[in-house]
Amino acid sequence: MNKRTADALALASLMALTGLFAWRFVDFGVLPFEDAAMLMRYADHIAHGQGIVWNIGEPPVDGATDFLFMVVVALVHRIGFSLEIAVRLITISSHFITVALIYFGMRKVQNAGIIPAFLSASYFAIGAGLFLSAAYFGTPFFALAIAVAWLLAQRLIFSDGGTLFGCVVFSLVCLTAGLIRPEGVMIGVFMLIAVGIVIPFRAFRQLAMVFGGIFLALGGTYFVWRWNYFGYPLPNPFYKKGGGLLHASALRTSIRAGLRLLYVFIPAFLLSVRCKSAFRMGVAFLVPIAGSIGMWVLLSDEMNFGARFQYPVLALGALSWFPLVRTLPDDLCLPKFASLARMQKLAVVLTAACVLGVVFTQEVRGSAATYERDGRYDIAVMLSEYADRGYTIATTEAGLLPLYSRWRAIDTWGLNDQWIAHNGVITQEYLEQREPDIIVFHGFFSPLHPPSSELSGSSWSRQVLRLQEYAESHNFTLAAVFGVSPEDTHYYYVRADLPESEEIVRRIRSTDYVWQGNGRECENYADLVAPGHMPSSPEVTPADADTPRP
């Protein structure tokens, strides 16, 4: 069997494995996760010519950090695909392409054999990518760009700097990754440093000049455009989640997620200590991985569903281990596999099969996730029948409810609201100005379980208590307090003077509400306490403003 035929069979097997895994373990009949639904709302507005806006007719808001992914989704939606299919088509295709890219990248760029390339691509195939796609996240699309960039960086490393054309292509792909998600810029810089550790200084100087020139010219043009378009330099969530602080808890979460994704590749990096050349390569290949994990100290890790922020390091790891062990048999004078006796070969194969079986089983179990119905979606679909009335919903749950209700929406946490993100927390005055008609919030209390003083001081609870205070002082009806525990609930308030107020309240109360994540049927705790006997909320002072969200 010639090399081309063997590669074709290996690729066909990888595609079949990935497809079988998707069919057997991934549920694609689920709803968008909250953060993914936010981006889909922006993409829908772009596709219909409204611009990058959270509410049609209002100024642009950069709440969707996956800029280029959002634009591509909008384009696919524009040509006739539903919004949901557009997202899935892009992300699932990206995952399959990345699997194939890892295999052929290792074969062509790293000169790896069929077995290590197949194993590395298989490990990536059964990772979290398809589950993230099922939840409607654009992470697989971003991971594809990172994989392409890292392979191009390795071509420069293995050719001592490569050609001017190679430098330009690498820089353009890094810029593209930065347009997909802002952290792509930082990962591109980490890759540039990695290349600089290995190649001669003269070649690196050329690469750095090309890289810097492209980012200053093209990236700078984009940066000036977006600053002018949105009115501020960074994506809106950065102001809410960053705050100019270092987030130690986010760093710890990122490190744990990185170790969980990359534990099988750690021995390769440890073995790189065996000689000077391998160690230098190990340090270089570690830079993008360590940088991609460590940079999350700059932001809080809310909405980090399935470690999606760290997921691209899986592509980096899958494409980094083999060059570190390629010369291991010669360096340690180990016998070639072909020179072993028959029983020795059998022992090696059986041992390797057992180890790989355990690893693959753990990966399948670790990646698997269960998705359930979500009562917020049911409420949103019901509210969509009133979408043409010009009503406004103010909510902490700014994913499914705004997307599927199609109401004008206030994201009270601020990820999609410029004023709140830049001023820290929603205020009574801001609510007075926006005049919401329905208020929905996720609280850690209920009529049966008053807010604890410990929780009431957090930024999240300050927001929630202000929403409750506004609702109870502005003639709102408490329609429902849904939850499976009185300590974790969704509150629904409806303004009493709406023409359809009684009808909407009745329909909310009659909803078969299911709790997010676990699919359990909820109680309506508002029905269990007599009107006028709601526990009072503790007073919250401005000093509590910087307390982190629970």
Measured on Cα atoms, how large is the radius of gyration?
Answer: 26 Å
Number of domains in the coordinates?
2
What would you call the shape? elongated
Average per-residue pLDDT, rounded, comes to 89
Uncertain stretches of 5 or more adjacent residues: 532-550
Structural class: alpha/beta
Approximate helicity band: 55-70%
* Strand tally: 6
Record the strand order, biggest sheet: 2-1-3-5-4-6
Beta-strand fraction estimate? 5-15%
Please work out how many helical segments DSSP would assign: 25
Terminal Cα span: 59 Å
Q: What's the main sheet like?
A: 6 strands, mixed
Explain what the structure shows:
With 550 residues, the protein is α/β, with parallel strands linked by helices. The protein has 2 domains: 3-367, no CATH class; 375-544, no CATH class. It has helices spanning 3-25, 34-47, 67-78, 83-108, 114-125, 129-134, 139-158, 164-180, 183-198, 201-230, 236-241, 248-262, 266-271, 276-294, 312-318, 321-325, 328-331, 342-367, 375-383, 400-405, 418-423, 428-434, 453-456, 459-473, 501-509, and strands spanning 392-395, 408-411, 438-443, 476-485, 488-495, 523-524. The chain has a 6-stranded mixed sheet with strand order 2-1-3-5-4-6, with helices on both faces. Strand 1 (392-395), helix 20 (400-405) and strand 2 (408-411) form a beta-alpha-beta unit. Helix 1 packs parallel to helix 5 (114-125) and helix 3 (67-78) packs across helix 4. It is elongated, with a radius of gyration of 26 Å. Mean pLDDT is 89; it is low at 532-550.
